[in-house]
Amino acid sequence: PRPSPATTSRPGRAPRPGPPACPKPSPASSSPAGGITVVTWNVGTAMPPNDVTSLLHLNTGETNDADVIAIGLQEVNSKINKRLKDALFTDQWSELFMDVLSPFHFVLVSTVRMQGVILLVFAKYYHLPFLQDIQTDCTRTGLGGYWGNKGGVSVRLSIFGHMVCFLNCHLPAHLEKAEQRKEDFATILHMQQFEGRAASGILDHDLVFWFGDLNFRIESLDIRFVKYAIDSNILSQLWEKDQLNIAKSTWPVLSGFQEGPLNFPPTFKFDVGTNKYDSSAKKRKPAWTDRILWKIKSPSVGLGAGGRRPSQGVLSVNQLCYCSHMEYTVSDHKPVVAIFAVQFASKADKPPVEIYVADEWSRPEQAVVRYKMAVGFHRSSWDWIGLYRVGFRHPKDYVSYVWARSDDGERGLEKQLCAQVMFSEEALPKGKGEYILGYYSNISSSIAGVTEPFQISLPRSEEGSSPTDSSGSSSEEEDDSTLVLLAPKSRSPSPGKMKRHRSRSPSLAKFQGLILRPSSRDRGTSRSPSPQSRRGLPGDIPTIHLPKEELGHRGAKAKEPGRAADSQEGSSFYQTVREQGGPRCVSTDKPLARADPRNLGLLPALRLEMVDQAMGRRRESVDQGYPCQRMSPTSPLGCSTSPKEGSSP
């Protein structure tokens, strides 16, 4: 079992802030064996249950402690109205699993959805730097490949230097469709290709987990005998008639795939809300439709696709558990879980980026972060360092952030591969709490370095006198007619305060007379907190227009004529973000302040502005013939495309 985070040796902490020298950290240590849990569940368009802790085997103790959890769902409600809501907000099933797993220090690594087929991959936060080259793919096989109700979705990634692929499939139903299931699986294996030389195809990976509602049935036997064998617990008499067991020895495409013994009752089909097999007029025969298999790449294959050699040595996979959970009755399928102990032949022992931080930040000047990049690490000017509460849910679930650039400039950064940055006082959370720092790589769309938890103990500002209080005098003196409203649940509360409400719509009813103006650029933009959605930059954010009388209480200066036109040239653009000490108003004169990583294709946002100001700016831009250029995903003005210091709108 893996040692607890408190006793594991990882990159050290600097005793106190100082010059950006590079201390020698203790080598990162991780267990050569990793626990991987795989879950498959056809949820039958049902709403999620209140709790899935037992399903994920989270209370089994350190001996079965998982490091990576892959969850494959099928038949998630994908009706038009539900898909529209899920496009703006995270679907309820993903919210549920993030809520349950984040108190156990699991972070969402990647997710992919194809209509009702969803795949979620979680990992312990201290493993994130060792999970690289993350990619996803999906293949439709319904209606001849034009419909995604059937098919497969996959997440592939490098775990400690070994290529691993998780493949969640929903194959055609019915007893007589065995050959169609074979053809669809072969199509999925052929169609799914990944970028890069390392494991371009699914079967090129060192380890493949194949699971889902595979829909294989029990042949020949009468339904009465099948139920008798289940009631008498003589399941072995059903194994030899199981279509998948037969196919494993006759289909070349399944060569090398392994599966544990089916020592649990068939998982399909039940009356919803009960543990009773189908009592409807159709009386479908019980079957093991929900399965989990794995395949280890043979080391004797030689050069793989792209000229890549397989990992040195042989991976060892030991299945510790393979079972169903009868206590969940929301669907006509029972969920199936498999727990594996994976012994990696070799492992990466140093993260791409090592971060050094003091044990405690009790004063703002202590918020100094030093980091060192490994040789060969490809950095980007869009990389950033996020400050996370312990129990954060996904890489964009940060409290605040700072762009990852050296105070000594780019030249010193490239020369030393070591840099220092500092969080501003306004960006720091007030009060006491445990936090983690993470270096987010924009190129790999993943966290490349993390710290151990450390303390932040900063005094809370006096109410009404805080410079970060947007309800104070600062909002009275500046033009705050343009605001950005972040969606609910954009930040995760502490593990002990996790809320049960999921997928909430923003509360706009309190604003009377609002006019929603959606942007055409928003079409097709992913809104879920999935790492996959970080690749592209979203378009203009939707706009909400408030009549001037609605904003009259915000201050006299907001009503001055010509204010909107002047603000296009030189006035500040403000973001209202919810902090621990209340909302704060952050000036974003510089392009850096406008480009919030949280809005880089992740969370929805709304822009509020007065109708007269919006129309005034539009008329003036048309009169002067100025092109409308975007500086960042959150700013309506500007022309910069990279967060360089000193650039101007």
From TrEMBL:
User: Positions of the region Disordered?
Assistant: 1-33, 458-593, 616-649
- Pfam families linked to this entry: Exo_endo_phos2, SKICH
Q: Which organism is it from?
A: Anhinga anhinga (Anhinga)
Q: What is this protein called?
A: Phosphatidylinositol 4,5-bisphosphate 5-phosphatase A
In this chain, composition skew of type Basic and acidic residues spans 546-563
Main location per UniProt?
A: cytoplasm
Q: Which UniProt keywords apply?
A: Cytoplasm, Hydrolase, Methylation, Phosphoprotein, Repeat, SH3-binding
The free-text function statement in the UniProt record for this protein reads: Inositol 5-phosphatase, which converts inositol 1,4,5-trisphosphate to inositol 1,4-bisphosphate. Also converts phosphatidylinositol 4,5-bisphosphate to phosphatidylinositol 4-phosphate and inositol 1,3,4,5-tetrakisphosphate to inositol 1,3,4-trisphosphate in vitro. May be involved in modulation of the function of inositol and phosphatidylinositol polyphosphate-binding proteins that are present at membranes ruffles.
Low complexity: which segments have biased composition? 1-12, 464-474
**Tagged with keyword Hydrolase:** yes
Taxonomy of origin reads: Eukaryota, Metazoa, Chordata, Craniata, Vertebrata
